[in-house]
Write a structure and sequence with these properties.
Layout: H1 3-11, E1 16-19, E2 23-30, E3 33-35, E4 40-42, E5 45-51, H2 60-68, H3 73-92, E6 97-99, E7 103-107, E8 113-117, E9 133-134, H4 145-151, H5 172-194, H6 196-216, E10 231-235, E11 241-246, E12 250-257, H7 260-272, E13 279-282, E14 288-295, H8 298-311, E15 317-320
């Protein structure tokens, strides 16, 4: 008969398991704990304690054991009394009493029973399946208040002026020229080895690749791009002009494209992301411009620009038209 085995089973169901002649094992709900130093997480559990002052037999342990071993209550009470008497005798001799999955009992210098619980089993049934673990610290980027204050003061202009921020995208044109030069150099090498016919083929392939890259590129000039006055014509099915509507004043520019079809492709992409993107015309360089949104209220436009620069593209900028 393993008395501690039955005590352990009852600790799952009850907050107090009294052992006749020895004392009572008590449990108390303990909340989840996160250790800040080790980043260890401990789930909710039951904390076990022992009170040797509670010695009155409540019949719970004896009845449970009698039912489990198919014997009478009186016979089981006698067995439990003998077992606890043996435990107390061992404690009096200075031995340490180790109860599996429960804890350790030992007498202190004052002759009182000292209990040290084990933590290998969680007796809280609602935390079944939850084990302790150590988490890797999560480093979060904190946006400084100084940066936010600067972003709140982003200037918008009615006339073109130099932008303070610079982008790597304007250098795409130079990279294309460099690619063409490299291609020409490789073509010269082929000409020596393969003849004039292979050289001409290599040049055409290189030019085709460079042209494709430039056509699909989004251009952000170093200064805001000027727009001429633009109006939209709303047509009926019979192609009669019924109304003219001016575009809003402030545009959050998403890019400028050499070909209109690339601008339309960009508009479809932005609409799928939830933006009310539109085509806002061509600039003085003949590039087709596309916006994220348009606003008549400048405060709303600045707020929206701030959100776009954070979540979509740092190259977005505000174009204001009188």
């Amino acid at each position: 008969m393993l008395l501690e085995h039955y005590i352990s089973e009852l600790l799952y169901r009850y907050n107090c398991v009294m052992v006749p002649g020895l004392g009572a094992f008590l449990t108390q709900m303990k909340s989840a704990v996160i250790h800040k130093t080790t980043n260890a997480f401990y789930p909710p559990s039951k904390a076990i304690s022992f009170n040797e002052q509670v010695v009155t037999n409540d019949g719970l342990l004896v009845s449970y054991m009698a039912d489990a071993e198919k014997t009478s209550y009186e016979e089981m009470l006698a067995k439990v009394t003998d077992a606890t008497a043996e435990w107390k005798s061992r404690l009096q001799k200075g031995e340490k009493l180790v109860l599996e999955n429960i804890g350790e009992l030992k007498l202190n210098d004052a002759g009182k029973i000292r209990f040290q619980p084990h933590h290998n089993i969680n007796y809280l049934t609602s935390s079944f399946g939850l084990s302790s673990f150590v988490s890797v610290p999560v480093n979060r980027e904190v946006l400084k208040e100084e940066v936010e204050a600067i972003e709140e003061k982003i200037p918008f202009v009615f006339t073109p002026e130099k932008r303070k921020t610079r982008s790597l995208r304007p250098y795409l044109k130079y990279a294309a020229v460099g690619l063409l030069a490299i291609s020409l150099g490789l073509t010269g090498y082929r000409f020596i080895n393969d003849g004039l016919g292979n050289q001409q083929l290599a040049i055409e392939e290189a030019q085709e690749q460079v042209t494709k890259r430039i056509q699909e590129a989004t251009f952000f000039d170093v200064e805001p791009l000027e727009l001429s006055a633009i109006s939209l014509d709303v047509l009926t099915p019979k192609a009669k002009i019924i109304k003219k509507k001016n575009l809003p004043t402030h545009h959050i520019v998403a890019g400028a494209f050499r070909f209109r079809e690339n601008a339309n492709k960009k508009i479809r992409q932005l609409k799928r992301r939830g933006y009310n993107s539109t085509y806002i015309g061509t600039n003085r360089h003949g590039l087709h411009m596309v916006n994220y949104e348009s606003y008549t209220d400048v405060d709303k436009a600045l707020k929206a620009l701030k959100a776009v620069k954070r979540s979509q593209s740092k190259d977005a900028w505000l174009l204001s038209v009188k």
